Every structure is written in structure tokens, then in C-alpha cells.
Amino acid sequence: MPGYSITRIPVVNSTNETAMQHLDLYPDRHIIAAEIQTRGRGRLDRAWISDIPGNIYITIVLKPDCPAVSESPLVNISQYMSVCICYELEFHGISPSLKWPNDILVNGKKIGGILCQTSLLGNRLAGFALGTGINLNMSSGDLLRIDQPATSLNLLTGSPVDRDLFLNRLAERFFSGYDKFMEKGFCSILEPYRQRSLFLGSRIRVRLPGSELTGTATHFTDKGCLVLETTGGDKQVIRAGDVQIVACGG
């Protein structure tokens, strides 16, 4: 299995920010792991509570020789990571689910999230930052600071979680399948991803820049896009957006 390296930092604004600011200093397949972050961010520029030790706050620097991300399997790398995280949670006896594209939930509450950033050199990829946060050791009071329903692995299992052991297992799993994923793309994880996407068949609302769509989530394409069937029977292929399940009558 191809190797990887890790830099451990006690305190950082954001591991993604550090990766992007010093991208030329970090090699391919390098993990930046922080004890705490003072300015953690999630998708859509949401704050990620990450000033509590004992959790996963990492960024993986990837530098494959490929064109822009939109033309490579990297466009789906966050979905690959979300499946890897699910496997590790299942190792602890937890049954996670996925909210497209890459949020990890347990019992409808968020336990992990992923944020990707890209640096280009001309029309080619200079580097890719795959940021990942996972709640491993948080108190009920910590979770009240989060602006959405959230949970933590220690509360689900009833025991503290060894953060370093969890990180090592996750990194091993990620890189053991990384080359295959980069060769085959999303179709290589389509089935495990689909099995954990519990909202399929449900009525959902997808918020897009400047608009929103409502319909039934039917399936995923082999490129990881969400297919939505609207009330009128039209099929819409969604490449990016924020998903919410619509309550009955909503």
C-alpha cells in the first residue's frame, strides 16, 4: 500500500487553511492533524466547532498528476472519504448514514463533515486539500454549541475514543483504496454509498445558489450526482447543493 505522512499541530486556525497557504511545502498523501482549530469551517462557510481536544480535525494533501478537479475522480473524493468514515464508525458498532454529498449522520444527527479546496497551476491541479472533521469525544454541553443536531462517537458507545487509533485506522483505510478510487472513480463506491444514503426515495428539498428544487431523490449517477424527480415527473441531475428532507405536508 502506498505510504503517507503526518504532521501534528497543537493549535491551528484551520488545517485546510494551513494546507492551502503552505501547499508547496507538503508532499502528496500528507495529513495535517490538529489538536484544536480556532477557526474551523464546514461547507457553505458554516462554522465547525473544533476547539475541543480529542476529535478528528485533519486535512489530507493530495497532488495527483491530473487535469483540473472537474475532469478527474477528485470531484468525488469527499464522497469516497465519507464512505471510509462510515466503515470506521461501523467498526465501533455504530450505524451511520450519508446525506448527499458528504455529511455523515447517526440517527439523523451530524457526526462528521468534509470540506474540499483546490489550488490550480494554469489548467492543471497544483494540490488538493481534503478537510475532515469527526466528533469523537464531546460532551452533551459541547454539542449544544453546534447550530444543528449533532452527536459524538463517545456518547454513542458510552466510552472515550482513542483519537490517534481512530485516525490511524481511517488513514490506512483511505489510502488502501485511494489508487483504485482514482482509477475507477465514483462507480467504485456507488453501492456502499447508496446503501448508506437513507434519504433515497424520500421527498427532499435541494437548495441551490439562488433557487431550490423539491422532489423525490431517486438515485445517483455513476459520477456521484443526485437525481431528483420533480412533482411534474421531470428528472433533474444535481451536481451540487444542500439537501433537506421535507416533512409531510412541507
Major β-sheet annotation: 7 strands, mixed
Uncertain parts: none
Counting copies of identical and different chains, the oligomeric state is single chain
Taking all Cα atoms into account, the compactness measure Rg is 18 Å
**H and E order:** EHEEHEEEEHHHHEEEEE
Category from helices, strands and their pairing: alpha+beta
Distance between the termini: 49 Å
Strand tally is 12
Blueprint of the fold:
Elements: E1 5-12, H1 15-21, E2 30-37, E3 56-62, H2 77-91, E4 97-99, E5 103-106, E6 109-121, E7 124-134, H3 140-143, H4 153-157, H5 163-184, H6 190-195, E8 203-208, E9 211-220, E10 226-230, E11 235-238, E12 242-245
Description:
α2 crosses α5 (163-184). This protein has a seven-stranded mixed β-sheet, with helices on both faces. The protein has a five-stranded antiparallel β-sheet with strand order 11-10-9-8-12, with no helix packed on it. It has helices spanning 15-21, 77-91, 140-143, 153-157, 163-184, 190-195; strands at 5-12, 30-37, 56-62, 97-99, 103-106, 109-121, 124-134, 203-208, 211-220, 226-230, 235-238, 242-245. The mean pLDDT is 91. Helices cover 24% and strands 33% of the residues. It is of the alpha+beta class and 250 residues long.
